[in-house]
Design brief:
With 863 residues, the protein is of the alpha+beta class. The chain is built from 24 helices and 25 strands. Helix 2 packs antiparallel against helix 8 and helix 8 packs parallel to helix 11. It is 46% helix and 17% strand. A hairpin with a 2-residue loop joins strand 3 and strand 4.
Length: 863
């Protein structure tokens, strides 16, 4: 084998052009597979950042009468489960909050995990430095000002030893850093990590707007604050634990018949992608993995087909060498082994390039998403053992795919015929009659067309997503996002600050309207409410079918200022908008403006204007299919309008869409901002003269206005409304898919062009004498050119026919993740074949043009 590798190295050094081209082709194919595997492995298969993940589960509180309804736990329930459960060795609690971390006079919005003292012990994680929380630091009311920070936080501070014991400002309050967590620890999720961890005792001062709408103290048994993580005792599993958990839930219901009414306990594996009190479904993410690996595998196959053609072409020139070795007594197996060794060497060189390319691409993807999220994106960009092993596996698979066939073909040489062969004679290999000429090239074209069509489908979806209409006419708006709660400002002072800021912004030159809003379309936070007609009382055993019977409908919730509808260009169809008094007063008659969708849902046969509705309770029956498609963080709407309180409908506006994947408007309710107050807020600043040229100038004026009102007010973002929509995570997802498949398609197209050009160029070079004789006998250059083009056209036609069948199958597979594009979109299925045909004909025309310039005399003299 050592001798074979030495000989392979000498052969490749004799043909550096071929070696470079082959390594480049393999690097593209292997690199794409390495990048996709690195992504899939990190998201789905890499070990979790905590110990013995198979023993860890999340505990859920489920409604026995409505099995689809789940809720969070209270702290007293946590202590009861810890004391009474017979199946868990440990039960920990946590909940997340969006907080402000103050650094150098600025405030960054990040996620914090509020955890029980035994959280890290249950997960089996020890801090890299320092200690974890003490049991007394968990006790409600103690408000312990201590925190642990992530490894990335420590890295951001240059891994200074002084970080441990330093002060960190969280929501304007000082916390002492008592521990630094390991680099691999990301909480219960994978890749996405909180930046700070604080004890449960700090819940009231940290949770702010991100807490549940009930606003109960942590110590209240009626509260729904916590999600529970538990570790099974040795030998225990979910099936064996189920009877004991149901018994435990029944005992708690008997002890606390009001707070624990109709509740039972169930477990699920800990989700790798979300934190929720409702069992999440990770199957959608898992379903994408085989699709991505399949597309990458097709690209590797195209690369292998390309390289197989190159090896066959190069092997033809070595037929005399192989025949001579056979004549001297060399066995066929020895020839095959030598050729496979050369192929393996090429594959290993390509694998090294592919590994570097794959790691760079996966890291680039992680960095591109990190700028859109307040979560740390923890991505290990270095080559791990699984990635190295799989890359080597791709090298072996590639060697078999591109080298074995040519090796077997070339080792069947006819010794006498090959030794008599004259240089320059065309010795194109024999083929079966039912196969087209150059079947490997035809297969390349077919697979390339499938990938190009997939890319065209995703590009079509991305273009449609870019033209998404929210229903608001706010293109000439600046959108200012602030959160005074992140600096610890008292709520009463925040309201006054926001009123002053609104007045100051309205006074800026060029500003026509200004309004505050709790949310914005495509924002990180989505608020929702279940609504029903006022006065509805549904008995537990009733199943209402209509709104008149008490059926509730989920709607998007937003609290806005008096001038909101004029500012965002949302016309009032009927009724009126909020008065200035209604928008700023937290007491009085509850009023609301609703959209046409919600009006039609609640009063399908009548006029909703002047009617009354109410917030439905958590267990109210809801319309089927009533759910959100927002990828943002969904929470219940805040405010001081109580469940069951009658709300008068004073206006009706057109329906809008607040999420990219929301196929139909899901209904919206708008209440005065003072009645749905929250410290995280947006200011829409309407500037009729706003253009790209003066956007920066207007933004500077807005920043100066903020500093004039409150220099400590955390400004989360300031951008035009169009920029806000353009930077949405949902849109990034669609564009990332389009970019990924475009790269696959472009690489496949490039490899197909190289394959066609290489085969035809080699064919022309080998047929120099034949072409010279044809031209000497009177053949015109155009005739020779057409002969070469016709052969390429036959390959192209065969590849397109087969490729269209593959593209149809690919479209059907992708149909579930395409954005508003049919699996057989006519534009995509027209553009992809035309692009491939044009590129292939160009790759054929270049060698054909070269053939017409052959001098008959020079061709006849060629040996």
């Amino acid at each position: 084998m050592i001798q074979d590798f030495r000989f392979a190295c000498r052969q490749l050094m004799k043909a550096p052009g071929f070696a470079i081209a082959a390594v480049f082709v393999l690097a593209l194919g292997i690199g794409a597979n390495t990048a996709v595997f690195s992504l899939v492995n990190t998201m789905l298969f890499a070990p979790a950042g905590y110990a013995r993940a198979h023993e860890l589960v999340q505990l859920f509180s489920q409604d026995k009468k409505n099995p689809k309804s789940f809720r969070a736990f209270s702290y007293p329930t946590l202590t009861d489960i810890r004391a009474r459960n017979p199946v868990f060795s440990g039960v920990a609690a946590h909940t997340v909050a969006m907080v402000g971390v103050g650094e150098k006079g600025n405030t960054r919005r990040v996620f914090a995990d509020i955890v029980s003292a035994d959280y890290f012990a249950v997960l089996g994680v020890a801090p890299l430095q320092g200690r974890v929380f003490l049991p007394e630091e968990e006790t409600p009311g103690r408000d312990a000002p201590v925190a642990l920070v992530s490894y990335s936080y420590w890295t951001r501070h240059n891994r200074a030893p002084s970080t441990l014991g330093s002060q960190i400002q969280i929501n304007g309050r000082s916390f002492t850093v008592i521990g630094i967590l390991p680099q691999t620890f990301t909480g219960t999720m994978t890749v996405f990590s909180p930046e700070v961890w604080v004890p449960l005792s700090a819940y009231e001062s940290i949770a702010n707007n991100f807490a549940t709408e009930k606003n109960k103290p942590l110590a209240s048994r009626e509260g729904e604050h916590l999600m529970l993580i538990a570790r099974f005792k040795p030998g225990m599993n979910a099936i064996a634990a189920e009877p004991a958990l149901k018994t435990l839930a029944a005992n708690l219901e008997q002890a606390f018949p009001v707070e624990q009414k109709d509740q039972t306990f169930t477990t699920r594996p800990v989700s790798r992608f979300s934190i929720s009190d409702d069992p999440p479904d990770d199957s959608d993410v898992a379903a994408i993995a085989p699709l991505l690996m399949g597309m990458a595998a097709i690209l590797l196959l195209v690369a292998c087909l390309n390289l197989a053609n190159m090896l066959l072409a190069r092997g033809t020139a070595r037929r005399k060498e192989i025949a001579l070795r056979l004549a001297l007594g060399g066995s066929r197996w020895r020839i095959v082994r030598q050729l496979l060794t050369e192929g393996l060497l090429l594959a290993l060189l390509g694998g090294v390039g592919g590994l570097m390319l794959g790691i760079w691409c996966s890291g680039l993807l992680a960095r591109s998403i990190s700028v859109l999220m307040p979560l740390d994106v923890v991505w290990n960009g270095g080559p791990s053992l699984p990635v190295l092993a799989v890359t080597f596996g791709f090298c072996l698979i590639g060697t078999i795919c591109f080298a074995l066939g040519p090796a077997l073909k070339l080792s069947r040489s006819s010794v006498i015929g090959d030794l008599k062969e004259q240089a320059g004679e065309d010795v194109v290999w024999r083929r079966w009659r039912f196969l087209p000429r150059n079947p490997l090239v035809v297969a390349q074209i077919a697979f390339s067309l499938a990938l190009l069509t997939a890319a065209a489908l995703f590009i079509r979806g991305a273009n449609k997503a870019a033209k998404f209409e929210t229903g608001l006419h706010a293109q000439n708006n600046l959108l200012l996002e602030v959160d005074a709660g992140l600096s610890g400002t008292p709520q009463a002072q925040v309201q006054q600050t926001y009123r002053s800021l609104s007045d100051r912004l309205a006074a800026l030159p060029g500003v026509q309207h200004v309004s505050i809003s709790a949310t914005a379309p495509f924002g990180m936070l989505s608020l929702g409410k279940a609504l029903q007609r006022a006065g509805a009382h549904v008995a537990p055993d009733q199943k209402p079918a209509t709104a008149a019977e008490g059926l509730a409908f989920k709607a998007r919730f937003n609290s806005v200022g008096a001038d909101y509808f004029a500012t965002v260009g949302l016309p009032i169809l009927r009724g009126r908008v909020f008065s200035a008094g209604e928008a700023t007063q937290s007491e009085g008659i509850a009023v609301a403006v609703i959209d046409e969708t919600l009006a039609k849902n609640l009063w399908p046969d009548g006029d909703a204007l002047g009617q009354h509705l109410q917030y439905a309770d958590d267990n109210a029956p809801r319309a089927k299919g009533d759910g959100g498609d927002n990828m943002g963080i969904s929470q219940g709407g805040k405010g001081n309008i109580k469940t069951g309180e009658a709300i008068e409908v004073i206006g009706i506006v057109p329906s809008t869409r607040g999420a990219l994947f929301e196929r139909q408007p899901r209904g919206s309710i708008y209440v005065p901002f003072a009645r749905g107050f929250q410290t995280a807020a947006y200011f829409f600043v309407q500037c009729p003269s706003l253009r790209k040229e003066n956007a920066a100038e207007m933004a500077d004026a807005v920043r100066r206005a903020v500093r004039e009102i409150d220099p400590t007010l955390p400004v989360i973002s300031l951008k035009t409304f169009s920029q806000h929509v353009d930077s949405n995570l949902q849109l990034w997802t669609v564009r990332a898919g389009a970019t990924l498949f475009t790269v696959f398609g472009a690489l496949a197209l490039l490899l197909a062009i190289v394959g066609v050009y290489g085969v035809k160029a080699y064919s022309v070079a080998r047929r120099t004498r034949e072409i010279g004789i044809r031209m000497a006998l009177g053949a015109r250059p155009k005739t020779v050119q057409w002969m070469i083009l016709r052969e390429g056209s036959f390959m192209l036609a065969g590849g397109i026919v087969i490729g269209l069948l593959l593209a149809i199958a690919t479209g059907k597979i992708l149909s579930g993740i395409l954005y508003q594009v049919g699996a057989l979109d006519p534009i995509a299925f027209s553009i992809a074949p035309l692009l491939l045909a044009a590129a292939t004909l160009l790759a054929t025309w270049l060698p054909a043009r070269r053939a017409t310039r052959i001098s008959p005399m020079m061709a006849l003299r060629t040996e």
